[in-house]
């Protein structure tokens, strides 16, 4: 099947581009000895887990269902972190997860013994209180009042017995200079306990496969923890695995005019690309320009009843027509994992573009996928 024969809307993930990213990540692992695991919260396309498993060390999860997904579909190391664990899920989590990271000493005290009896590695999330993000507080785990990780003045070293690793996650789509800054804060606040640990987890948010990413500084940070404290280093990027490796192909349904030209698409920012509204950001669109850059500017919108279901303003060389296909880029990350069926909006199909350029649809959704979530 050719790309332009796919149904719309449809997420399309390019296998060759995924592998390109994986080779970059694998290179970091090979040169440093660090382990990199897939953060499934950003990308959970199990069709590609066999390929990802050829390069990475496993998966990390934010709860039981993601942990099961990684355990069942990739079958390598399975890590988990949650702000708090449900007691009725903990036995199953312990049965499938190699690394279990706790967010507080109260959670540690509650579940540690059971996890240790099962031979699991126990970690504690720390909060170095070092914000390196600007303008995206919703994604800043070090923001004031954050629920993530133990801060220095609440640290209880007398309860560290059995804890073999520390975990921090402070970044979001950032370069390694911010990691270096964060690592300085980690050492300043928690360095006295690092010598008694076996491993450290740098969390996610590392844009390692971005063109301008400074891999040398990342590797120096890894080496620093290895040489100074003898620690095994873990990283858990999600975006870096599928960065710029996917598309969302859509069709123009109709036009409207109200102070400007408006195109209504068969996709939705609200339902299919919610980060457009949450982040917010303007997704790249192949063949388009900024508003006013090209002769014909349109506001691209979705089908839902939400007034703010707006993807953004784009310009084109030629007027759009009903039935035209538009292809948004960088739509593998935080897309499929966040879709919803608000207004009964159908979920996009999911397809893979193989290394030979051929496409195959691996999942389509219908009315029952909407209805099954309701009662």
TrEMBL record:
GO terms for molecular function: diaminopimelate decarboxylase activity. Its cofactor is pyridoxal 5'-phosphate. The keyword Lyase applies. Pfam families: Orn_DAP_Arg_deC (PF00278). Gene3D superfamilies: Alanine racemase, Lyase, Ornithine Decarboxylase, Chain A, domain 1. Residues 70-331 form the Orn/DAP/Arg decarboxylase 2 C-terminal domain. GO terms for biological process: lysine biosynthetic process via diaminopimelate; nor-spermidine biosynthetic process; spermidine biosynthetic process. Its EC number is 4.1.1.96. Substrate binds at residues 239, 275. It is an enzyme of class 4 (lyase). Keywords: Decarboxylase, Lyase, Pyridoxal phosphate, Spermidine biosynthesis. This is Carboxynorspermidine decarboxylase. It comes from Paenibacillus roseus. The gene is nspC.
